[in-house]
């Protein structure tokens, strides 16, 4: 129905697919009446939050659903064959030969006790009828194509000898080596760092175009969609709510959910002066039957009809459908009723009072080898870091995994002892953790959780403590009803609010937030970012905001410190660092971030940072970034650049920063 | 998924039948749907009641002999029959069950408390404390537990208290190991770090966060340990090392009866059946507890 008038037959045709999961709480309709088709060579992105049914849909297409999930209605036609009618054996052939798959977690999708060569050659031999020697040569060739250096040697490696990025390359090589007509990739780059993600995306793009392989990839990252997709299916609460070409989705979205999502992403260009628009509320409880439109409770354009009847997909253009009763969706009205408050920045003259001062801080982890106690491996997690945090400012710390940002946070909090160097802090330092699920004792009620710091410090009697707990829970935008629940009964976004409340209980001067939004759904992230921005203004608390999400860091921070291999390589005001980076690594990081704008993505150079992070064990005499730096010279390889001020209020550790 | 497109099944609206979602209601539902727990209680509750009411029942006292009624088969007056000295097997069995339950529960409680204490210390502090505790644990674990118990009784003598002590000591190393491994997993949780950032004391961390979160699996282990202790006590008494005659215990009842197996089968067999029932019910209890405490194990 979407491809009316097209001449070629679709490669994959999904019709009215409905998938259900039987749970204790009731039947969850994970995929509800999903219909779409993929033409040969087309790249389709499926976008949605966790629980929106995108993975369940992919699994249903592959017939990989396991109990308690099952497809209850609809057809999946692959090249005209109904996959529901295939035997398990035919299906196995199809999974390798016609459809390749790449899953999210590269750590668990390869067999840990089997060499790469064996894992790769077996499907090639079976599906392409090659002998071992040919299959081996083929596998080496594919490893070369996905950018694995020295593939002849690396093919004999075990998965644990490879990094996450390398393993994901192997997965892609495996999936494509049998020359499938369709590649299904479920969040293929979510577990990877931005620079590695950029490399993988380029590989996927190049290889699928070369072989005219169609691709269905699942993601929650709209930037990635803009970079990679031809068409986009937006899912919400199990339904496809909008389906259109990538240009249409970004230029003229019709469904309020799509419109809202696009507006909640911080813009990479302008200095953000007002708060992020946020989608109010939470996604619906999928265990309950949904009456009417599932998005209506979070939608400002909702009317009576939205509550009565679920909208069907209707045409909004040549190849654009959306499921909304309102012709314009939200139109130009704001997505929430929050007042558009100005985001006050500490721009111009920063407040001068320094409340955290870090001088030449080192944290080295020493592991002695099993056989000889004298030979030691030293990991320089934090290496000569000097930073300052001023009262009421937000310092953003960015860098890829393994750059030492989390160790730095733990040092700031006193959870680790520094190997050398000093940290001076004025007042208390508190923390908001990344994973809301493990941040709270599951046996304690929210009330006791927020009260705990007060109780430990013996602040006030029972009555004053309870008053403070109630004050705190309101401060973070929840109400007293939440206090008597257990952590398991709250959503991720609510839990992060509770984490903020607990961190603020003792009126700290600094709150360290380590990836506070990365475990949250896109539509909830903006709520937490706004909360932190508001609290900074109201309470004058300083934040240290650690994240790999550059757009968010740039939005919320007054200053940014960029870390690479345990060192700060650039430091300065957020908008300046982001818009005119001085250090080549900062520039590479920013270039690697996918921007949710297809027009800009198309124009951007596909020049991505080559190589991977060097092993933290290796001793580097010169600049730590020289191995990957496009500008590196002999001086960089021998002489270590110091972090120095090269412009007003800006510092960079590069010989060539001007 | 089956091989053809399927029509949607009839959907029962579950929320209609269980509208209340309080924690207590959920726990009650989970308990009522837990058939193993109910099975265990159906055996253990009447047994407990019988033991408590034994003095009120018209039964011959466990130690009273009656030379007029020796080796009598089960009857209304003597439900389990009598032994060669005319003692009532039923009342002796009840006395034996009482001892069995005492041994089982005391061993479980002792092993739980000591195991949690030492396991928490070893797992939480690590380093020298951990190594010292674990060396001792490993030495104890090198012996089969029944053999260890026999050796300890040889040192401490027979009777209820030494038997409990011996079985508990043989069992404690396993509890220490389990608790230590649980603590190792728990101590890196973010909520422990959160409490550390406000300088909560070590005791606070252990008592507020570590122990409550390791209690559930430890309780399951304790209920298995209780079943095991009852069997070990019966074995020891059977070997003449546990509860000494004339005081009855299920083990020595079987031992006394085995000589007369051909003339009076009931003397050994009926107490044996009772041991079986108790052991099964404790295993049911532990399975049921695991089900109730760990939602993931439910199918």
Radius of gyration of chain A: 26 Å
Order of helices and strands of chain B: HHHHHHHHHHH
Number of strands of chain B: 0
* Total beta strands of chain A: 23
* Uncertain residue ranges of chain B: 1-21
User: What is the top-level CATH class of the domain at 100-242 in chain B?
Assistant: Mainly Alpha
Task: Tally the helices of chain B.
Answer: 11
Largest interface: A-B, 46 and 31 residues
- Tell me the overall shape of chain B: elongated
**What class would the helix/strand composition of chain B place it in?**
mainly alpha
Please bin the fraction of helical residues of chain B: 55-70%
Task: From the alpha carbons, calculate the radius of gyration of chain B and give it in angstroms.
Answer: 24 Å
Shape of chain A: globular
CATH architecture grouping of the domain at 100-242 in chain B: Orthogonal Bundle
CATH superfamily of the domain at 100-242 in chain B: MetI-like
Our estimate of the beta-strand percent of chain B is: under 5%
Describe the protein in words.
- The complex is a heterodimer of chains A (658) and B (299).
- By secondary structure, chain A is α/β, with parallel strands linked by helices.
- Chain A contains 21 helices and 23 strands.
- Chain A has an 8-stranded mixed β-sheet, with helices on both faces. In chain A, strands 17-18-19-15-20-21-23-22 form an 8-stranded mixed β-sheet, with helices on both faces.
- The longest helix of chain A has 18 residues.
- The N terminus of chain A is likely disordered.
- Chain B has a domain of 143 residues: MetI-like (MetI-like fold).
- Chain B is 69% helix and 0% strand.
- In chain B, 40% of the residues are buried.
